[in-house]
Design a protein that fits this description.
The complex is a heterodimer of chains A (497) and B (323). Chain A has 497 residues and is mostly helical. Chain A has 21 helices and 8 strands. Chain A has a two-stranded antiparallel ribbon. A two-stranded antiparallel ribbon of chain A has the order 3-4. Chain A has a two-stranded antiparallel ribbon with strand order 5-8. The longest helix of chain A has 27 residues. The N terminus of chain B is likely disordered. The chains are: A mainly alpha (497), B mainly alpha (323).
């Protein structure tokens, strides 16, 4: 008998045959393998320890801002878990997900606020809200159940838009044969004065209480989805995700599975919405619009669709990063640390890494010297530090001022034209980098890094609350899809066409 | 316009023929715009089976390019060149810029994902769409840019031609006629030319077409260029009629055009044109007779009803799924 030739087996696609090998590659893969070998009690104890550690945060800090960020992060974790059911488990692109989030918020706001003088306790309103959102999820998925997944995407995207329209326009709802119009959703101003959660004599009033409540919700939903994922239904979902046609041929009720995935996701989203409305004491339409949807998608994709732990980690990471972006002084660091990490991870050998870094620094200093000689005013610009003070910026600011070319009296006075050109040029350079190979890539990388720092300092840091954060989220989605579609903690999967 | 227009809301003014024709003309104008956009969605879907969410943003960028050409040539109030030349230049620049943008999007965001799981390019498209929207906000500011086309020739382009009960503004006529010309050109391109035949072959069966020696990458690139150029023309038209442009104009128009493509039968060129007109007229009548605030809800209801009755759209053929 001949020795079996190394390499993929006959009849098996090479990609499929090597999928086991690939899973072990890299630090994350090795960590995963190590975790899989741990006995179950150890895993459970470890998870309990992590949860306990997270639960201790309100004890360690009294800063209300930190607690508020914690509550929002946990709400986003809940949302990511819910979206993961339809996108990660069942492979359905649900773009109306944010509407269910809003549905929960508005539902709670209507049932427990002075808007209509109704003040239901949580144990009365929550079942109603969850049941209704499941029903709406069913109704939404119904027209698209016979269709390919793409139609579901468009119907749900439109549905999300409709929800927003109704929320904004809902202050003048015409009812047939009754003159005048009725205020239902409060319109653009939303519904304010929403009650705190109260159930069985307990009143949640502080951010600390909401933190613990959200944490409990995340843990419960996580556990429920974990068991669901390992149940018959969960296996059927994953089968549907990987090959809908084969699943149908195996006799699985595909339509029912789709409906169920959307509805389960919807109820989790609605739960997150109720917590958000109660902790904010209000429900406002702009909290439930497309940017939030993109944020949740970025979280799920970054963490790894299909992995429960991954999406929670993704949600916490993205939300904390976006929070840090709000302060220009902190945001500044993010870019440089991120660039440095990426370079260290991607540039080998270390001699080349050192060369790139030295060349980048030298490039900036040389350019600075040339501009200073030719046009002295061209380097008189200052580094902004907190939106109002354009002067110092510490030693990092000093370094940047002598490395970048910042013309005086430009962006302080809102004259952004040249920096806009730099931004577009930066995008062009980054795209060019993906096409270049060999030494040209390293040569182009140097001005790209310098330009990235210039654009970041002049154009992006200042708008950390607005376009910048969403620009980065959009870029994350595109880059991840091309570079690592399984996200940080997800598993690569095979799609057979 | 108040919110209440259901049943009890009609007054004598809205129930006249001139009002009806006004709505119809407005709907056809809007519809030809949606049709141009829907063609891009439909052509790309026909070939790649990809819903290009970024198409609406290409439309928005085209609209901005039109604005910058208009401003560079002296603005609407006192243009440096004759109006015909001005309009032609705006269309040419808008179409060229949008077309190149479309090609770039395909090259960098979709081509690497051609063999990835189907959900991957959709998410990438979503990311591109959002990225372009925010980039436009950052570059051009959040305040809408004013086309001010009313200033062209002292507003005479907004005068009406009257034929009995039927009235149409010159501007609406310009938009409808140029849309029809572009659509005719596209049909001829697809039906008569060599590259059109390659497009049809690729759309019919991508793999077989590539085995017959068709350069798939070039066909796809060309499709993106043509589709995006049509979107750019639509963007300029949008600016001409509604007189302003902002970073979010693409999202809503894209959603409607998308609906139009689905209603007409995605992948079908005839369907995209017909669907665009249907959605445009439906939206205009919904605004004029029912409620301007809830026009989107009415269009959505139309989409759901049509999908329930004819899942493949009005002109679509049910796809056979082979394994």
């Amino acid at each position: 008998m001949e020795a079996e030739a190394p390499g993929p087996q006959i009849g098996a696609d090479e990609w499929v045959a090597r999928s086991g090998e690939r899973r072990q590659a890299g630090a994350l893969g090795r960590a995963r393998l190590w975790a899989e070998r741990l006995p179950r009690p150890v895993l459970v104890a470890g998870a309990a320890a992590v949860v306990a550690l997270v639960a201790l945060v309100p004890v360690m800090t009294t800063d209300d801002y930190v607690l508020r960020v914690g509550v929002v992060s946990l709400i986003f974790a809940l949302l990511a878990l819910g979206l993961n059911v339809s996108v990660g488990f069942a492979g359905l692109l649900d773009l109306g997900y944010v509407a269910f989030y809003g549905f929960g918020a508005y539902g709670y706001a209507m049932l427990s606020s002075s808007k209509f003088g109704v003040h239901w306790a949580l144990w009365e309103s929550l079942p109603v809200i969850l049941a209704t959102s499941v029903l709406v999820g069913f109704l939404l998925a119904l027209p698209s159940r016979r269709l390919v997944g793409d139609y579901l995407a468009i119907v749900t995207l439109f549905f999300g838009q409709i929800f927003y329209t109704i929320a904004v326009q809902g202050y003048r709802v015409p009812l047939i044969k009754i003159h005048g119009s009725h205020d239902i959703t409060g319109g653009p101003n939303g519904i304010a004065d929403v009650d705190d959660f109260h159930f069985f004599g307990v009143h949640l009033t502080t951010n600390k209480a909401y933190y613990w409540f959200s944490l409990a919700a995340v843990v419960l939903v996580f556990a429920a989805l974990h068991f669901l994922n390992h149940s018959r239904t969960g296996r059927a979902w994953r089968a549907h995700r990987d090959d809908p046609l084969a699943t149908q041929l195996m006799g699985m009720p595909v339509n029912w599975l789709k409906l169920l995935a959307i509805a389960v996701g919807a109820s989790v989203g609605a739960l997150a919405g109720t917590i958000n409305a109660a902790s904010l004491h209000g429900s406002f339409p702009d909290d439930y619009n497309t940017p939030v949807l993109i944020t949740i998608y970025a979280m799920v994709i970054l963490g790894g669709a299909g992995s429960l732990l991954g999406v929670v980690v993704g949600a916490l990471t993205v939300n904390v990063l976006l929070e840090v972006l709000r302060t220009p002084d902190h945001a500044r660091w993010i870019l440089y640390i991120a660039i440095l990490l990426a370079l260290v991870a991607k540039v080998r050998p270390w001699r080349r890494l050192a060369a790139v870094l030295v060349a980048t620094v030298a490039f900036g200093i040389a350019l600075h010297a040339i501009v200073a000689a030719a046009w002295p005013r061209g380097v008189h610009g200052l580094v902004s530090i907190s939106g109002t003070d354009f002067s110092k910026g510490g030693w990092l600011g000093w370094g940047l001022r002598h490395w970048l070319v910042l013309p005086g009296r430009t962006y302080e006075q809102g004259q952004y034209t040249w920096f806009n050109v730099a931004l577009v040029a930066l995008i062009g350079l980054v795209l060019a980098l993906t096409m270049l190979r060999g030494w040209a890539r390293w040569v182009v990388l140097v001005p790209t890094l310098w330009l990235a720092a210039l654009v970041w300092e002049t154009r992006l840091v200042e708008e950390g609350t607005g376009p910048t954060r969403f620009l980065l989220l959009g870029a994350i989605l595109v880059v991840l899809m091309a570079a690592r579609p399984q996200g940080l903690l997800g598993t690569q999967r095979v799609e057979i066409l | 316009m108040g919110g209440i227009h259901l049943l009890a809301g009609f007054d004598s003014f809205t129930l006249t023929w001139p009002y009806f024709f006004d709505q119809l003309v407005a709907g056809l104008t809007l519809g030809s715009l949606y049709a141009l956009l829907a063609l891009g969605y439909s052509m790309v879907y026909g070939i790649l089976k990809l819903l290009n969410f970024a198409h609406g943003e290409v439309f928005m960028i085209g609209s901005y390019i039109g604005y910058f050409v208009l401003t560079a040539l002296g603005g609407a109030a006192s243009p440096d060149v004759p109006i015909v030349v001005l309009l032609l230049l705006m269309f040419a620049a808008g179409m060229l810029g949008s077309g190149l943008l479309g090609v770039a999007i395909e090259r960098f965001a979709y081509r690497p994902l051609r063999s990835a799981p189907r959900i991957a390019p959709l998410i990438s498209a979503l990311g591109v769409s959002f990225f372009l929207q925010q980039l436009a906000t950052l570059l051009f500011g959040s305040i809408p840019k004013q086309y001010n086309t009313f200033g062209l020739h002292n507003g005479s382009l907004f005068n009406r031609i009257t034929l009995g009960n039927f009235q149409i503004q010159y501007m609406q006529l310009i938009v409808v006629v140029s849309a029809v010309v572009l659509m005719l050109a596209l049909t001829q391109l697809v039906a008569r030319t060599k590259v059109g035949r390659a497009m049809r072959a690729t759309s019919f069966d991508l793999e077989a077409a590539s085995m017959m020696g068709i350069d798939i990458d070039r066909v796809i690139m060309f499709t993106f260029f043509v589709g995006s150029a049509l979107a750019g023309a639509g963007g300029v038209m949008n600016g001409l009629i509604f007189q302003n442009v902002n970073a979010y104009v693409g999202f809503n128009a894209g959603l409607k055009a998308f609906t139009a493509a689905v209603v007409g039968g995605i992948g079908s060129i005839k369907g995209a044109m017909f669907g665009g007109l249907t959605i445009g007229v439906a939206q205009a009548f919904a605004t004029g007779y029912l409620s301007s605030a809830y026009q989107d809800v009415i269009v959505f209801a139309l989409l759901v009803v049509i999908l329930l009755m004819r899942p493949t759209g009005l002109f679509g053929t049910p796809a056979l799924q082979k394994v």
